[in-house]
Design brief:
Layout lengths: L3 E9 L4 E3 L2 H6 L13 H5 L7 H12 L5 E9 L5 E10 L10 E8 L1 H17 L18 H17 L4 E8 L2 H8 L1 H16 L7 E4 L4 E7 L3 H17 L10 E7 L5 H11 L1
Antiparallel strand pairs: 1-2, 1-5, 3-4, 4-5, 6-8, 6-9, 7-8
Enzyme class: transferase
EC number: 2.7.7.65
Protein name: Diguanylate cyclase
């Protein structure tokens, strides 16, 4: 497992104490020599990310009950500041002479946060790139919104319509400003939740004939037909407030940015470029 070794720890199976290394605690923002720390197993378990906790608890319980004599597990753990680190632990029982049952286990922790961050980013970029393949040509697989290429095509159609009989056409890019920070610190499940909820909130702001699509990994493109810029501005502000105030179960606040422009005769690509440059 690629990462940084944080040293070994000891688990007392009888007294349920957990002796952590100074390096391991330091990574989590805890200074062992400046704080009176409990050495209980519960103190360790309560810091594990809630979705990973049952898996870790089951392995430790099986170890205590003698059903297994070793295990490896990857999990997320909270830092003092509320962020998340990815740890990989390998553990095995210590065989003592003259003892029928092992009373202690020794484990090693490897901090794999950096490799997990890179892995998640590559996965996100790969999935978004798939939108250009035949399989995902029309729809984004996560939000089920129009893909980038289809969104641009539909915007071109709206522009042609605007030239005919639409009085106003306001176009906005609405982006998750701290998307990669959220993904790195909170995890992929949170960012997926934000994207799906944001698409739902933006979707409810639309009227018949308006356009919404997933423009990039962290941005949505929306076009309000027959809506002047002043009214579209109010709609976007309300959308931003709703997305930012929603409870996603995250510690880091979601930050949204947007840019709005009224169609004034330019091409779809020129209009989008103006929005992107202004973000």
């Amino acid at each position: 497992m690629q990462g940084i070794s944080l040293g070994s720890w000891i688990l007392d199976l009888e007294n349920l104490t957990f002796d952590e290394t100074e390096n391991r605690l330091k990574v989590l923002g805890i200074e062992k020599n400046k704080m009176l720390l409990p050495d209980t197993l519960d103190f360790f378990l309560q810091r594990i990310y809630v979705e990973d906790l049952p898996r870790v608890q089951d392995l430790i319980l099986n170890l205590i009950q003698g059903e297994i004599d070793a295990f490896e597990v990857t999990y997320r753990i909270r830092t003092v500041l509320g962020g998340l680190r990815w740890f990989h632990d390998s553990c095995h029982l210590i065989k003592e002479k003259g003892e029928a049952n092992s009373k202690r286990a020794i484990g090693e922790t490897i901090d794999i946060t950096e490799s997990k961050v890179i892995e998640d980013r590559l996965t996100i970029e790969h999935e978004h790139a798939l939108q250009n393949t035949d399989e995902f040509e029309l729809r984004d697989p996560l939000t089920h919104l129009l893909s980038k290429s289809e969104t641009i095509m539909q915007l071109k159609a709206l522009i042609e319509l605007k030239r005919g009989d639409i009085e106003f056409l306001s176009v906005a890019l609405i982006c998750i400003k701290n998307f990669f920070e959220l993904n790195d610190q909170e995890g992929r499940m949170i960012t997926d939740h934000v994207l799906v909820r944001a698409s739902d909130i933006i979707g409810k702001s639309l009227n018949e004939g308006d356009l919404l699509g997933r423009y990039s990994v962290d941005c949505f493109l929306v076009a309000y037909k027959k809506v002047p810029n002043t009214m579209a501005e109010a709609i976007c502000k309300n959308v931003v407030d709703q997305i930012e105030s929603y409870d996603y179960g995250n510690d880091i606040p979601v930050k949204i940015s947007y840019n709005l422009a009224e169609y004034l005769g330019e091409s779809a690509n020129e209009l989008i470029s103006k929005l992107v440059c202004a973000l």
